[in-house]
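Duplicate of #3305? Posting structure anyway:
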């Protein structure tokens, strides 16, 4: 792990940015007066939800597939609750690579179909993220594919880190960054860039209360497991992972947990104030910012809007929330 951790750096993020320029434009960073009023701060929204695949993860996927192709590796396998797998599948198609993606049974049907549409071989297995990972471990040896770990993969993390280079270029006076944590690749990327370029920025993580293994690990300063029952896959994990944890265990200023109701409120508030439809993880940072608005008052804050791939059921439940109409909690 120490060797892999050494491959994650600002220099490698900058190299990834050069690679991504041929495939991906910078995502929008926007202000909304209603959000400034709601949070009591200068709020910038990083619209990773507007990337191809509707998520930040495409950044890591492109960087990964570029390097696999350069090494002469043909084919990759991974496991995912949806967005990571969609990114790997889409990036593999861009580089004429084969992709195999294992997802838990009863995953978000929109994400599952998107993975299939991107051309990956899709396998549904197990009740959760970790069970899908166990299936991949068996298939790696059988099929001889490159194993793309959803969290412990430096090529992914360096690719994702390009997002934070963009934020700091546009908001050099940034005080606070709010990011979601699932498996933790984005947290690892943010901490790598922020600590090297503007170490005074507070980094605040957000996770689902119903799948809080990363939060528990951060609190206890050791990798722990926890039940994973949230609908919001992008802020869910049943365990922490070595490489991201080694960075976020001491790299976060705070860590906020959201209830299932609060996650749905995040979707509703996002739709009201920004006219964007997002998934639970996509609205989580906004909802967390509202929850800790006293802590953020008067500051310059960037929140990450991580994903747009909500199911119809999730959207119906979110728009039924009173805050969808009022824009307030």
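Output from current build:
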């Amino acid at each position: 792990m120490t060797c892999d951790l050494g491959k994650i750096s600002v220099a490698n993020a900058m190299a990834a940015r050069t690679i991504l320029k041929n495939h991906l434009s910078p995502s929008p960073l926007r202000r909304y007066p209603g959000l400034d009023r709601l949070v009591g701060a200068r709020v910038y929204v990083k619209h990773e939800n507007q990337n191809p695949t509707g998520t930040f993860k495409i950044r890591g996927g492109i960087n990964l597939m570029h390097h696999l192709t350069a090494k002469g590796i043909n084919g990759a396998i991974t496991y995912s609750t949806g967005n990571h797998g969609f990114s790997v599948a889409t990036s593999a198609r861009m580089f004429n690579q084969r992709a195999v993606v294992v997802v838990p049974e009863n995953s978000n049907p929109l994400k599952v179909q998107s993975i299939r549409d991107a051309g990956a071989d899709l396998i549904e297995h197990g009740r959760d993220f970790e069970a899908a990972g166990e299936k991949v471990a068996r298939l790696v040896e059988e099929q001889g594919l490159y194993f793309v770990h959803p969290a412990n993969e430096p090529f992914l993390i360096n690719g994702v880190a390009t997002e934070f280079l963009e934020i700091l270029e546009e908001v050099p006076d940034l005080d606070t960054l709010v990011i979601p944590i699932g498996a933790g690749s984005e947290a690892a990327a943010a901490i790598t860039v922020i600590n090297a370029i503007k170490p005074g920025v507070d980094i605040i993580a957000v996770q689902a209360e119903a799948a809080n293994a990363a939060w528990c690990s951060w609190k206890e300063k050791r990798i722990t497991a926890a039940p994973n029952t949230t609908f919001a896959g992008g802020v869910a994990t049943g365990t922490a992972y070595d490489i991201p944890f080694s960075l976020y265990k001491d790299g976060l200023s705070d860590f906020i947990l959201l209830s299932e109701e609060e996650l749905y409120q995040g979707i509703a508030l996002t739709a009201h104030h920004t006219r964007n439809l997002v998934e639970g993880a996509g609205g989580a940072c906004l909802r967390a910012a509202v929850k800790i608005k006293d802590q953020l008052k008067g500051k310059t804050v960037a929140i990450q809007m991580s994903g747009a791939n909500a199911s119809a059921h999730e959207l119906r439940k979110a728009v039924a929330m009173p805050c969808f109409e009022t824009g307030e909690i």
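Confirmed duplicate; merging threads. The mean pLDDT is 95. The domain at 2-55+155-326 is CATH 3.40.50.1100 (Rossmann fold).
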